[in-house]
Design goal:
The protein has 519 residues and is of the alpha/beta class. The protein is built from 21 helices and twelve strands.
């Protein structure tokens, strides 16, 4: 074999060596027993046809590569957003390993989360003993100030009652009676990660505002002038939260961010491991009840939470992942209206700089067709920004999108001449997107890491702007919200356009008539 200590070959070149090539040929001929290459090619070509697309869109009992994750993932996100809080998932150990790895691979940071480690016996007899032992271990080993409990499929199918289990665990001495253990039922077989986010955040607010599961008096609202902010499930939270805090600081607003995991996923390397870092404190959660209003950036991440907060007497302003000029304008003007303060000159300047940059680059993106998929709120924000640029969002897909969401996207498309060819696809998956890219091609695809297989298959260049992003590093450290975030988004769109243009014009004396130095 060519690999040795004196000559270490990286994997992308190692497997091209003759020894490995011979191994692959032998494996295919003697062990795989595949169909003939010609037959495979025939079927592959058929799956690119309009006939196959009709069959693909007619399926109703099968999902192929959905653009969503399950509820407990959103619950783990929420737990990481509160100070010295450890996420406790009542379910199997394998599920929790998935949540930890999913976040760690995206943020390139460790993600702490524990499990009640339910196995076959718990599936038959219930997971109470797992809860009793698990909470005790979590409290004594990791010393959190709060444990946020959620569930997986197994616990939900057998009907474990979290409220009763937590009370019994406290009676058994797993944690002190007064210790905060908010909880949420997050069945993984319905909804998605944004549903889990909503349920978990609602569970924490209810715990503190409504009397800690009957163990304390409910808090009484004393209306004040502060503003709450909820960002929703956000893969760019490290960069976005810095930008949001900066905007509030420019206004001089007393703002409370409810659920802020930006620091725990951005810890320094200085010789000290930080299991807990930053996050919203319990005191801030209690104080948030008295806020004048709550601004929510992702409607579909916070449907139940928004309703609950409004019932407490606050004004609730719901936006859809503001990206670009109009989206950020709505946020800025909401702060100004709620506080009575003028828009800071710095933000007015940044708006003008963004508009100038858009005008500088408009000729390159004008008329380019985009397919995009991801969470409902982000699809609304990105669609609006593409229309502002004169680009044409053509296929907008959200596996966890509803018909109500689709109606809102269609209204955006109908309000712009650049949206006339756009179509919206709620509850569709990436295999549907593949058919669309073959039968109604576009210039670019916006999605997450899993879109690279669509890029390879259909030749549609991918722009990575959707959680999760595993195969690129540090995108999450830059904002996509606000005027500065829109500038970053604009650059990402332009970079892929220019990279694609260079790749298409790179052959000397043949296609390099547009291989320009100046763009």
């Amino acid at each position: 074999m060519p690999q040795n200590a004196d000559k270490v070959i990286d994997h992308e070149m190692l497997f091209r060596e003759p020894e490995y090539q011979e191994l692959f040929v032998n494996k295919k001929q003697n062990f795989e027993y595949n169909h003939a290459d010609a037959k495979v090619a025939e079927i592959r070509d058929w799956t690119k046809s309009k006939e196959y697309k009709e069959k693909n869109f007619a399926r109703d009992s099968l999902v192929v590569n959905p653009a969503k994750a399950c509820q407990p993932l959103g619950a783990v996100f929420v737990a990481n957003g509160f100070a010295k809080t450890l996420s406790f998932v009542h379910g199997s150990q394998g599920c929790v390993a998935y949540y930890r790895s999913h976040f760690s691979r995206h943020f390139k940071e460790p993600t702490s989360c524990v499990s009640s480690s339910m196995t076959e016996d718990a599936a038959v007899f219930g997971g109470l003993n797992n809860m009793i032992d698990g909470l005790a271990n979590t409290y004594n080993l990791y010393k959190p100030d709060m444990i946020a409990v959620s569930t997986t499929c197994m616990a939900e199918v057998i009907g474990d009652d979290l409220n009763a289990f937590i009370k019994t665990s406290k009676e058994k001495g797993s944690v002190p009676a007064e210790f905060d253990v908010p909880f949420a039922h997050t069945p993984a077989f319905v909804g998605s990660h944004v549903t889990g986010y909503d349920n978990a955040l609602l569970g924490i607010l209810q715990h503190f505002w409504d009397g800690k599961a009957g163990t304390a008096e409910p808090l009484k609202r004393e209306p004040g002038e502060s503003i709450n902010f909820i960002g929703g499930f956000d893969g760019f939270v490290v960069g976005n939260m810095k930008e949001i805090r900066r905007i509030f600081d420019l206004f001089g607003v007393d703002a409370t961010v409810l659920c802020d995991p930006s620091e725990v996923w951005n810890t320094p390397t200085d010789g000290e491991f930080r299991m807990y870092e930053g996050g919203t404190t319990k005191a801030d959660v209690e104080k948030a009840l008295n806020a004048k209003a709550t601004i929510i950036f992702q409607e579909y991440s916070c449907e139940k939470t928004a309703k609950y907060i409004a019932e407490k007497g606050q004004e609730v302003v719901v936006l859809n992942s503001p990206i670009g000029v109009a989206g950020t304008d709505a946020f800025i003007m909401t702060i100004s209206r709620l506080t009575g303060k003028p828009v800071p000159a710095q933000l007015e300047k940044e708006r003008g700089q963004l508009v100038d940059a858009m005008a500088d680059s408009q000729a390159h993106l004008h008329g380019k067709k985009y397919a995009l998929y991801g969470d409902p709120d982000m699809m609304l924000g990105l669609t609006q920004f593409l229309l502002e640029l004169g680009a044409e969002p053509t296929h907008i897909l959200a596996t966890n999108g509803t018909e109500e969401w689709a109606t809102k996207v269609r209204a955006l498309l109908e309000a712009s001449p650049y949206g006339r060819d756009g179509k919206v696809y709620p509850k569709r998956d990436l295999w549907h997107m593949r058919s669309l890219l073959y039968t109604e091609p576009v210039d670019f695809l916006i999605g997450n890491t899993y879109g690279k297989y669509l890029e390879r298959d259909t030749g549609t260049p991918l722009i990575r702007m959707v959680f999760p992003i595993f195969d690129r590093h540090h995108y999450h450290r830059y904002p996509i919200w606000g005027y500065d975030g829109a500038m970053r988004t604009l650059i990402m769109l332009l970079d892929e356009f220019f990279e694609t243009l260079d790749a298409n014009t790179i052959v000397p004396a043949k296609t390099d008539y547009s291989y320009d130095i100046i763009r």
